[in-house]
Amino acid sequence: MKKFLLAAAALTFAVTASIAGPVEDREAMMKGFGGALGQLGPIAKGEKPYDAAVVNAAIEQLSANAMKFDVAAMFPAGSGEGTEALPAIWENMADFEAKVAKFKADVAGVAANPPADQAAVGAALGVIGGNCGACHQTYRAKKS
After folding, report:
1. Domain encompassing residue 37
2. pTM to 2 decimals?
3. Of 100, 97, 103, 93, the residue nearest 128 (C-alpha)
4. Per-residue burial over 105-114, b = 16 or more CB atoms within 10 Å of its CB, e = otherwise
């Protein structure tokens, strides 16, 4: 059932991305990342038992979405108005692109060697989450 839900979420993202604009595309992608990470967090914390099928499905979803993360297409000039994306993205585009590239590389590294136990899930989340946090601290408006 969990695999089905993750597959349905990935399919929804793919369909939505093909008909939406850049803001909707990036918001859907970020929600996809959040959904996959949400599957891994409780395992890393020991709140849920390690389940290889859940872990692998979440990592596959992260990897598939990361490979589709096209900064130019999803963050065109002028697409930050009314969103949580800060103007700093467009003011420091090279740094933003570098952070996205590091995220993609780190996700690919985890996908190439999926976590085999709870501790490894925690380590993988530390690497991937560090990328998310570094970008969000600089380029995403804080929620009030």
Report:
1. 2-139
2. 0.83
3. 103
4. ebbeebbeeb
